[in-house]
């Protein structure tokens, strides 16, 4: 798969095969590819861990519990500021309306929307997940490097015909992830669900991408 095809074929998988798991050799290959990413002064400050089996099962249970009980969140990154500009609000609304429209979920059906959103905390049934994190004493530059790293990990997975879903929502509960994984003094930035897509109609959804840029 060439690079163009890799970018064009990638999509956010929202329903993974429950009977598919990645082996350690494949996970190791993904990690080695992702760690070829550039970083400031080659500090390589971005950290990665893969989670599966009983630990992932426990994590899913704890995240779902926190979500349904409306527990206090402990996110390090805020992806959606309170004063979000209208043009970005419009893009979010359009994307959500198309996704829920595909699922025949009415905008006023709060229970159905809640149930669909809760699938984030089950990693959409994936049996493997990756977590991207940095040490707490690092500054914003490390976040930028983590973005590059995350993109390269996702593209590496796509090149190996592994489906992914980038997830910011699960890291709203930074403390829970830290406790379950027993990784301390770090900030979890995002998670990436990994696996094989089912043929469920939700996996036919594609977000609209616009190339908005300037050339001087």
From TrEMBL:
InterPro entries: Nitroreductase, Nitroreductase-like. Residues 7-196 form the Nitroreductase domain. It holds the Pfam family Nitroreductase. Keywords: Flavoprotein, FMN, Oxidoreductase. Its cofactor is FMN. Belongs to the nitroreductase family. This is Nitroreductase family protein. It comes from Campylobacter canadensis. The lineage of its organism: Bacteria, Pseudomonadati, Campylobacterota, Epsilonproteobacteria, Campylobacterales.
């Amino acid at each position: 798969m060439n690079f163009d095809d890799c970018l064009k074929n990638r999509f956010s998988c929202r329903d993974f095969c429950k009977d598919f798991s990645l082996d350690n050799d494949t996970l190791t290959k993904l990690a080695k590819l992702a760690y070829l990413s550039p970083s400031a002064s080659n500090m390589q400050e971005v950290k990665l861990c893969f989670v599966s089996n009983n630990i992932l099962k426990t994590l899913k249970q704890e995240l779902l519990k926190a979500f349904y009980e409306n527990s206090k969140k402990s996110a390090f990154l805020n992806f959606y500021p309170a004063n979000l500009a209208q043009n970005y609000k419009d893009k979010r609304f359009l994307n959500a309306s198309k996704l829920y429209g595909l699922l025949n979920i009415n905008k006023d059906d709060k229970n159905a929307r809640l149930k669909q959103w809760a699938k984030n905390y089950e990693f959409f049934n994936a049996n493997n997940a990756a977590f991207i994190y940095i040490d707490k004493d690092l500054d914003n530059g490390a976040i930028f490097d983590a973005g590059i790293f995350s993109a390269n990990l996702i593209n590496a997975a796509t090149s190996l015909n592994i489906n992914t879903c980038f997830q910011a929502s699960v890291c709203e509960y930074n403390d829970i992830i830290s406790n379950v994984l027993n990784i301390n003094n770090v900030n979890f930035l995002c998670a990436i669900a990994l696996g094989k897509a089912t043929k469920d109609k939700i996996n036919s959804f594609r977000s609209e991408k616009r190339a908005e840029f300037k050339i001087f």
